[in-house]
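Session log. Operator J.P. requested a structure for one protein chain; no other inputs attached. Running the standard single-chain path with token output.
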Amino acid sequence: MAHSVRRTLAALVLLGVAVAILASLGAWQLRRADERRALLAAIQAGRAQPPLALTPATAPGELSAWRPAQAQGQWLNQYSVLLDNRNQDGRPGYWLATPLLLEPASRGAVLVLRGWLPRALPGQPAPTPPAAPAGQHSVIGELSPRVPRLFELWSFGGSAQGQLPATLPVPGGALPQVQNLELPAYAHATGLALLPAVLMQTQGDDTLVRDWPQPSVDYNQNQGYALQWFSFAAIAAAAWLAVAWRGLRRGRGAVRP
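Structure written below.
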């Protein structure tokens, strides 16, 4: 009898824990759905704004994410940087980042993500990034508050591989390859007065691919997962009630004369 009571209590504890965990997972999925819904609203609001003409005097408050923007200036090819490990449709490659000089007197500029180019296959020569043309050019794109980041595995080992050189351009004219690019560090290395935003170019006449990745905003998927977790929690709660009811009936039968 005592053994049966212990088993019943253990089952009730385990089922109670399962209900709490499954319900919390469902609540977490609902929070993720709210986050994605808010992100979708921010993207739609940004893209609905009128195009912004970028100048060195553009106020930071106007540089909202996803807003269409246009810049007029001169490309500074000598400061170009390759962002490594950026895949496109499953193919490894790079993003090419080049600053656009908006005002020579103040060195005011905006960093432009010009597009994607593939990584060379083993045994093939490395691809040559297309140089931006000389002279004044107009660049159209969308704003981002920063260069989208990747997780840097090398950072735990203390290696300097993939880090931005302290000064640009590097001797010999080779393009630095980095995992991530922070605007303050890049401004310090180039001596440019950068706008606190990045222009992701959407139109161009070169061979670069400009199909920029978009954050996942499928909140319906999270709502579906939440429903699944809450269903599992309900099943566990029903099992808890069944075990408790059987234990109660067993206990009543044991005390009958």
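Operator note: Residues 5 and 251 are 9 Å apart (CA to CA).
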